[in-house]
Amino acid sequence: MRPGSRYFKDIAIQHLHGCPITSRDVTIADNVYGPNLGSLKGKTTRRPVPSVSNRNDPVPPPILATHNHLGLSTDIFFINKMTFLSTYSRDLRFRTVVTLANRQLPHVRDHLQATLRLYHSRGFRISAIYADPEFEGLRTWFPQLETCGADDHIGDVERSIRTIKDRVRSTYRMLPFRQIPRIILGHLVHNVVFWLNSFPSGTGPTTHHSPAYLMTGRQVTYKAHAQLEFGEYVQTHEEHSNDMRERTAGAICLGPTGNAQGTHFFMSLATGSLIRRAR
User: Fold this and answer.
1) 244: pLDDT strictly greater than 60
2) Which structural domains are found in the chain, ordered by start?
3) What is the mean pLDDT of the chain?
4) Residue among 279, 255, 253 at smallest CA distance from 268
């Protein structure tokens, strides 16, 4: 019959004489195993996504006046044979990371240009890009490029990458899986960077605002961004009609997208593909 938990506790148990299950048993089962899966798949209805403000706060004027010209460090790193491009602002303590399909110069150039556009959109100017000699071929597009010697390294971005790898390793060890597909690993790295950017750095330009707030003008909230844990099993809402198809589908949470609506990335367990859902 698949009754909901409230119906089961308040009505069914009381009128099913001799039933050994108590209302407390149902409450404990819900806390341990979650809501009744059959009820979710068969009864879930669409709820409207709450409206949110589209306004992004400007950069605080004192910070923009002090840090309007920035240095940006960049490097490429690898995790389990996946390639990532990372940038780090030594002034704002803001990190970016993208998954690289290859290391060809046009591909790297496009991602770096997208990063510079993000800074420019917030009123910052990148006066220097620090990188190792591998990036020397990009000087045509980035005249502010400053490359180090063959045996030298860019210390701040190297430390940032080490921090990212440490957080990725720590999160991975707490997942219930020992082998994960590339889609999960890639989003694990992005999720780590999202949360590193979401809180003020003790050595940053301000202790009142996070690097992400300075670069996006949006605050991270518990309700929108922190109610689902990375790697958590969920049932996502799917399009449906009045036929017999299920209304939710199993998925693995891959972290928030960062928008104000609280949209998250998920990996569908049915197809293995990336999906975005607000609930």
Assistant:
1) no
2) 1-43 (no CATH), 61-216 (3.30.420.10), 221-279 (2.30.30)
3) 86
4) 253
